[in-house]
Fold each of these.
Amino acid sequence: MNTDLFLLGTLLPDVRRVTDEVKRKDTHIVYPELDLGFKDLSPFEAGYRFHLWCDMRREEILNKYDFYSLKYAADIGHLPAKLLEDELVYDKYNNWEKLRWLLDNPPEIKTDIPVSQETIERWYAVNAKYFEKKPEDKTIKAFLFKQRKLRKISNDIIDVVGKLRNNSKAVEILKKVSEEILG
């Protein structure tokens, strides 16, 4: 399998963050049960489907551990928790340089999502910059600032990330997400 295309596929569903061309419902198809059988899928499509599966599995895990009952856990559309997860799992991946190069030099992407190649490349470039080092308040804020819809609330998001970061129960549950998904 072409792992480069798989990785690009895993990041594309969130392209909506840098464009008004598509909404979440256009990129995050809801399946009653998502099959991870990749037999007839291209590596890119498999990565895309893996993203959707991870989102569904993440919610199952967070609900299992009653994460959303914690203070601040559901604030600002669950985004602070996802950003804290990025920080918590960053050290588990060891090839950020290659991923950044790939994101800065993607091949032309063929997709059914009604979004331009320019928008796709912009989304990948935003991610490449975000992955330059382990996420922390400054890098998260820069990442949010590149997402026009989040600029005005970036300080609020950073504040909630900090509150979750200081909640040992929240951190414990968020660590379980990657442990249970990736094993």
Amino acid sequence: MKKRNPLRVPVTHGLKDLYAMDMRLAYQAACVGQFNVVAFGRLAAAISVVRSALEHNQTKIPRAIDTLDAAIETLLAVRKKGDETDKWEITESELPTVLSGIDMAEQCIGTLDVALLAQTADKLLQDVCGEQNA
């Protein structure tokens, strides 16, 4: 029996818009001094899911993973400061790196499929929940 390739359902504009909204609204909140732990979580989750999914999909977009990794490193520094001080902010010098990550995530999300995004999000959520319970 011939092995079938799994069905690839491309990311729709609606799903892309949901990811973009999570990232862009959080970024805007940071720009106007209204950034908080919820906005941080939405932004970090969206970028992390796209980045992890790209790793499995072998993206052909030059420097995509490097750009997303730089944004994630910046967000890790933001998280560390936020956890220590309970003050959540992205500094002026950090904003360009985060914005580049958002732009790259939006560009790349159209190359992914819905199932891969869902599986990646589930795995990352399990990893985070396991980390918190440890």
Amino acid sequence: MLILIGMMSLNSFSQNVIDSTSIQLKKPIVRLVIKDLIIGDSFKKELSLITTKYSLLENKVVLKDSVINNLNFQINNFNSILNTKGSQLEFTKQLNDKLRLEIKKQRIKNKILGGAGLIALGGVILILK
């Protein structure tokens, strides 16, 4: 009991609470800090606008690349069509030359047969006379 009474009679002390979040600045410094905060906020907005603009530009580049690839594909298709048409034209020229040669041969045969027919007709007429 004596210990208990002795402890109650002792003075105790504790630390005073110190508020470390409050800082007191002079007015000109506070104005400069406020200006810096406003400028920082405007830079954040500008940065967000620049990033959206950058993403839009990236999308435009992707779109232009796809258009260019599509045009290159069309050019390749047109070139293959031209090559096919060129080979068809060469084939038709070859066929045309063969047909002309055949027509010449047929004309010569017709002339020979026509001449032979006239000679035979003349021979028959001479024989019959």
Amino acid sequence: MSAEGEGEDTTPAAEPEEEKAPVEEAPAPKPPPLTFDQRTELLAKRAGTWASLLDFSSVPRSKAGWILRAVITVVVFAFLWRRVVGVTHTLIATKPSPTIPTEEIEDYRFRLPEHTRRDIFRDLATVEVAERARAIAANTWGGHLWSREDDRGHYERVAARGAAQKYHCSLSQVYLVLDEGIRERWPGPDGNPLPATTPPHSIRTTSW
């Protein structure tokens, strides 16, 4: 054997390892669908969890509970504050209306000149006479006088509000003028004064 052969590595070269193909993992099996009873039980548990957050008799056990408790408290307090302010503001801020004197200067009463008072009375008297005629013609309330008069009062209130708007005065002034016209026996549209009496109260025994 030559000297050159002694220095050479006679170990056979290692063959390259074959690359192993990745092993595909089997997909995890899907859980079976929930039954109707299981879904109902799950929803009940979730509802119970949310309902416990609204239990103000106990201390919240989570951050979400504290946040929900704070939000509800603020909303309720704001609602109550608006209600209290809305009711009390009118009582505190509204100034009492000035008194309406019965006598001021000549030709004036209730802060209205006589011609305006007579116009107001004529408007109200016209409505009253027309309503009385309509009630008789239609035989309203089966002829029950007190019910018929009570019904007429509704139309009188509507006419009084219209007169207050038409003549730019208060409703109190309108009723004072109506009282004055009845007391002074001012003529209505038919030339007769309005009646100063009302039928006595009597309860109806039947309904219409």
